[in-house]
């Protein structure tokens, strides 16, 4: 562990003195390197014993949680620089990044919203309208939990565990998972329940959390149009969909320092790579990760 810290300190000096990088550039290199260091720490691999296979697994995780190809390419570039330094300083005998390829930048993932843009969208919601508080709760849950839109529309009131701070989500293939939910999102849901209790609920929809004015579940297209409306009202020019919130959730958690495995479990991904089955993660660890690293929690705390 200490050896790793010493190497990183020497690498920092190398970037500043040998490469003559600005303080901002040095910080950017080290921030991206920390993503890999957290990964190898969780895998209990010494920094000098990382292999090409380990790096492939790390990059696969970046892809799996929806990190944009440009961000992936930047992170990979920083990792290559670090291992060239290790080779130069004789910490390693061969460079494990030699065959590591960056993703094709042409691959188009949904755009990522900034924290400020998400705040602007939420602030645009008119709470005097009957659906105002419901829509505010929906946006908070989408961003707080990284849900697919189908998971959001199917979310049941009985699957919200207010005291424990979790929601039970049914994902693809009817697979269930527990996802931590922030106090901010829970607060907005509680406020929405006052309005929900005044709706005449149709038979069969009594347990659905987010209801239409007709007392039925919301459709995917209704969520899509709602988000398009608030995007326009907030003056955001990006091409935004409900899935954008899911990618923003993953990206902001990763950039904030959350564990890759924790992010994957919260997103409901079964595998890390095509060959390695996902390992179980303690529920309280998941909850700590989202509460410590999610921007909305930091803002509200």
Q: What does the main sheet amount to?
A: 3 strands, antiparallel
User: What is the overall silhouette?
Assistant: elongated
Number of helices: 13
% residues in beta strands:
under 5%
Radius of gyration: 21 Å
Q: What structural class should be given to the helix and strand makeup? A: mainly alpha
The poorly predicted ranges are 271-280
pLDDT average, as an integer? 84
Number of strands: 3
Strand order of the largest sheet: 1-2-3
- Residue share in helix: 55-70%
* SSE order: HHHHHHHEEEHHHHHH
CA-to-CA gap between the ends? 32 Å
Describe the structure.
Mean pLDDT is 84; it is low at 271-280. The chain has helices at 2-18, 23-42, 52-64, 69-88, 115-123, 132-145, 149-153, 183-196, 220-233, 242-256, 260-267, 283-293, 295-300; strands spanning 160-161, 166-170, 176-180. The protein has 301 residues and is mostly helical. The chain has a 3-stranded antiparallel beta sheet. A hairpin with a 4-residue loop joins strand 1 and strand 2.
Task: Give me a quick take on this structure.
This protein is mainly alpha-helical.
Write the layout of secondary structure elements.
Elements: H1 2-18, H2 23-42, H3 52-64, H4 69-88, H5 115-123, H6 132-145, H7 149-153, E1 160-161, E2 166-170, E3 176-180, H8 183-196, H9 220-233, H10 242-256, H11 260-267, H12 283-293, H13 295-300
Helix pairs in contact: 2-4, 6-8, 6-10, 10-11, 11-12
